[in-house]
Amino acid sequence: MLERVLDALVGSDAFERLLLHRARPILARAHAGEDAVVAALARALDAPVMMVTPGPREAESIHRGVEAWLGPERSALLPAWEALPYEGISPSPEVAARRADAVHRLRGARGPFVLVTTGLAAMQRLAPTLGTVPPLELVAGIEVPPDEMAERLVALGYVRTDVVEHRGEFAVRGGVLDLFPGTARRPVRLEYLGDEIESIRGFTPASQLSTAKVVRVEVPPVRELIADPELRERAERLAPKHLDRFRDGLQRIADGAVFEGMESFAPLLFDRLPLPAEVLPRGSWVVLTQARRTHDRARQAFEEASALAEASGWPGPPALAPLDDALDGRVELRLSEFAEGLDLGLDGWGTAQGNPAELARRLADLRTRGYRVVLAAGGHGSLERVKEFVALPDAGAVEAPLANGFVFAQGRLAVVTEEDLFGSRRHTREAPRFTRRRTDAIAEELRPGDFAVHRVHGVGRYAGIRRRAIGGAERDYMVLEYAAGDRLSVPTDPVGMVARYVGGDVPRLSRLGTNDWARTTRRVKRAVKDMAGELVRLYSVRMSVEGHAFGPDTPWQAELEDAFPHVETGDQLTAIEEVKADMRRPKPMDRLICGDVGFGKTEIAVRAAFKAVMDGKQVAVLVPTTLLAEQHVITFGERFAPFPVKVAMLSRFIPRAEQQRILEDVATGAIDVVIGTHRLLSRDVAFRDLGLLIVDEEQRFGVAHKERLKKLRTHVDVLTMTATPIPRTLEMALTGIRDMSTVDTPPEDRQPVLTYVGPYEEDLALGAVRRELLREGQVFWVHNRISTIDRQAAWLQERVPEARIVVAHGRMDESELEREMLRFWDREADVLVSTVIIESGLDVPSANTLVVDSADRLGLAQMYQLRGRVGRSSERAFAYFFFPPQRELTEEAHERLATISRHQALGSGFQIALRDLEIRGAGNVLGAEQHGHIAAVGFDTYARLLQESVAELRGEPLPEEQEIRIDLPVRAFVPPGWVSQEALRLDLYRRIGGAGDHEALERVRSETIDRYGRLPDEVQTLFAVASLRLTCAHLGVEEVSTYRTQVRIKPVELPPDRIRELGDLAPGAAYHPATATLNLEPGRVAGAELPGWVESALRRAAGAERAGAAGEDVARMAR
Fold first, then answer.
1. Domains of the chain and any CATH numbers
2. CA nearest neighbour of 594 among 444, 730, 717, 431
3. What is the pLDDT of residues 1002-1055, one digit of tens each?
4. Does pLDDT of 58 surpass 80?
5. Which residues have C-beta within 8 Å of that of residue 901, sequence separation ≥ 6?
């Protein structure tokens, strides 16, 4: 269908005139359909075309459109580096891979092909080797030994790690190789049989578990400069000709080092670097869209780069060429929005865009005049909704992610997209897919020197894992150091006995052999019981009140949910179902949704609100700031646009007359969803039929507002959301007295934030601001001293005059503060100079550079949350944590800065700061006075005591703590040669020891094989011991040990009939009723087979064959 549209464009008079001018540059007017124009031009020329846009957002949008018109194999995107060439920052693996892939495909392009790029990328010279190395192609069945594969990947620029989480990484573990190709959506897992790749599967980075099989994988280079022997030899020869850091950099390349910023040395290493336009085949055209703006942006970038080169003393030829020089000798088509040059006859939808009713009327009118109408939307659900709304039965329909459509009068054609109808979305790139929650698979690091809590013995210091062989048994032990130099060795298999200490303060070490720890836990339990009693009382009161029972989902509810532009996460879907289930009950809902900004809480609120409106009820969404209200109005408005649902906003900033009109509409029911600040809690706000109240960040409201909310809670459903993370252990402990759902799944496309920590350098800080402005982004500049913040902003304005700067701090008048923050969010300002008040709740996807000018004064959790303000889209983000060069750092400040520098990702290493934030979250839920009790015993112990108190108050049986000692002469441990990272080994012990039944143990076993490959004998034995432990727990057995040739098991209660049959059930077995001890004779059974044999004999003797069937399966598989 889209091909017929292109045929109409190519066959038009305007296009014929365009092709007649191919001898000289042409200026043409195009109000819309630029992606269609460039696709049609490539078709007409039957040759590649290069499309140059002002910036990355336009390039991404046009690239998606061209892919829809011509197909993905006939379009490529060449992005610019995220930093200028002289800044010493390498492009991210994804950008490097996309550039290599684009140039490789361009070099081999024949026939219609469109290379979409930006003005900056078009000016940047390319390494001559870029795009000459074909991607590595992997399919099941080929023979490439793991060691050789690792060498090839290193040659392509990939980095070897323990756990693969980001593009450009790979890991080798036994017969498994994990790899995240630079342009891939998902990482892949290669499973080997000898030297042959037996299977290829995708896997999820957060869970590390395999998904579907993959037929073929392309692995492009993720470095633009590959240090092969020829390049190293050239660097060795050229290094002595340069001075200082340039000589050092070239020498490092000669030595084969891979380092940040090495690509910027390319102009020093090659005689000449080609420009992208020079790679185009003969007969190709270059098209500039928004020609004037593209030239202006390119000129600014060139001037900024030239100044940077001069300031850095750059000794080589320039890495950039002016745009006119870069495109010299190519036929240029300059597309302009203004009334000048050749008119291509494509017009946009003008005032009808974003106005569904008006656009539908215009389409109906065009159809009666003989126009063909083509409807386009990005997904099946969205396309069905567009077709239903437009209601033209003979209109063509196609699933295609076109940004905007157009009217082509000469061809009597009208193309309309979902965004033309319902308004444009604010996301900058294709909707990121989501993965499973962050805490499921990444081990929480317990490093030597960290504080840890043993359930029985209290707080100690973790000293690492030690292997010990005692009486033929070889296993790993965790070593804990206590006060007075005492040491305790704890077996790793029941690893749940030990947890990292998290309490916010430096704890006092417990003394072994005293009852200090028991006294402390008793004191905390008394305080916990009082607090839990109040929660239980409140819950009981709520359960006694009648509320509205909402009906089942409507067909429109399904359509709304199908139109969601992301893939929902597992915990997001769980939360949505929990909310709906609460709404269907005849009791008022009071559910708390926890999760960071950008993790999908708002979509849960959107669906709940829509369900309430479909039941004839009104919805109030209460937020602490006007900025959050604005954000929610846009989100709710976009999602509800295709439906007859009216959304309005109420805040103090709205004119009084407008407020009055909104209040009247709320009172009459004309408004379905009203979103606002605490103005919503005023006495003059009256609803016709309020059914659902959604509260965002309740802890930020004052006492009076909370009291008003408490009264509302008694008769309407309430859904509360918070961006402060809540620990899973707390959520579980509160089960049955506080309804909570946790959404802690990070967007998968979120890249690690490139983090710089070092002494303050003016040029570096200012360069970071200018670079972000060049890519039309925004900057957070954190200056955490109110007395000098205005002076800092004035200095920055003087140094970067083109920047639009606003200031925000906590002592500003509330309305002024919100007004300035709104200006920044609405992109009326480029730089927000503020104190740390931006650390939570602010979601500005276009802000991707953070500068903190005195980071040594900040806590680790503050720095983590500040860094979380950037990198919220798929753009590469930068964070600069500076400290004054003349100030001597304290040891604590040095450690904090080292930690933020070392842990650049939202991965395992940063769990400590995350847990610090979770303690704050616990305070929000439980009350700040509980913080001291958490500090006394650590969070995990506190959560366990809370769970026990709740169970007691509800009259439920307490879970019995059962310590089972298994001492068999077997080698049961995780070999370091199989899993080298200690944190991952501990995590594996935790998973095996934490399996609550045989079914869960089998899942852990399957996941372990999935992640690490075939199990070594020692690990198979470890699983067999774990299976035996579960059977012992089921039968009440506390000890399994060996004495000479016998295995002793106690206590075992056997009825008389089983004792009489014992010889038949387990040959050589003997039972001693006085001590409840069962003695078994294993004979020649030994080593790895012994645990399974003991388990099988024990089950037969105790008559537990059926209960232990799953255990037998696990034991058999382990053997």
1. 2-131+274-343 (3.40.50.11180), 136-219 (3.30.2060.10), 348-419 (no CATH), 443-617+689-745+908-954 (no CATH), 754-905 (3.40.50.300), 965-1118 (3.90.1150.50)
2. 730
3. 999 999 998 888 899 999 999 999 999 999 999 999 999 998 889 999 999 888
4. yes
5. 755, 756, 757, 881
